[in-house]
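Notebook entry, cofactor series.
This is the third protein in the set we're modelling with a bound small molecule. For this one the ligand is S-adenosylmethionine. I'm keeping the input format identical across the series so the outputs can be compared line by line later. Sequence and SMILES below, as received.
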Amino acid sequence: MAAGDGVAILIAAMGIDAEWDAGAYHRVADPQFEWGRRLLATLSLRGDETVIDAGCGTGRLTRLLLERLTSGRMIAIDLSERMLESARENLEPDFHGRVEYVRVDLLDLAQRDVADLVFSTATFHWLPDHARLFRNLVAALRPGGRLTAQFGGKGNLARARSRAEGILAEPSFRPFFEGWSGPWHYPDAQVTAERLRQAGFQDVRTRLFPEPTTFPDADAFRQFITAVVFRVHLQRIVDPRLREEFLDRCVAAAAGDDPPYTLDYWRLNAEGRKPERPREGAPA
Ligand SMILES: C[S@@+](CC[C@H](N)C(=O)[O-])C[C@H]1O[C@@H](n2cnc3c(N)ncnc32)[C@H](O)[C@@H]1O
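Returned structure with ligand:
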């Protein structure tokens, strides 16, 4: 057995990839909140819908949705126990009885014909199988129901990832990453549109666009990449000294960005509608 195998087995046994530091995410994820807020502003809602927030995180955007659902209800879904617990703490005082909290992998979602809208932000790129994801989402929607989502698309964080990959390929880091292809899936707009249609959505629209995001200083940048961008990488670097070295070097490299401390985000917006009637030949 190679040294890297031992580390990989340890990481798998700890089951760490799915968990987040929900408190840190809640504090630093203003960019995600702002992108989601803008997406939400494009939505028309009657107010009585049932809405799934797919990958609700700590519930900051779920709250904005709930404020627009005067008589509707939410199904807040997340795989991370800590994220869902944080969402519950943040939402229950104001929306008690109107939110169902469901801890499930969206790839295993088994809800059928329950929602008028699936809303999702900053989540789908964490899932490896979008064909299966979209089949599950279309099944969870009622006939005529809509999907509105935004996630990382082709080219997302290409510069930040390439810098990190350079560091992590060095001998002191390599054992933590052997046989690991990374946590993200960043498709382009065309592939996503095709997958949505294949899954059974109609009126499909997708759009990929740059969203470069600049942080005020080294400290803010470091906190953000720790809690969000390289969260899973850091979980794998079991040696705390190497974790600090990795962060120091990412921050030092970002100081040379123009403007300094900029992450090269690309977002993909995806919309579709479940047909009122099943397509001919579609599975019942
Ligand atoms: C970056 S956070 C986004 C949270 C929130 N939507 C926002 O925009 O701030 C991604 C969320 O997706 C959740 N997630 C990742 N993979 C998932 C999966 N397979 N099933 C359900 N939730 C998942 C994570 O636990 C996390 O809470």
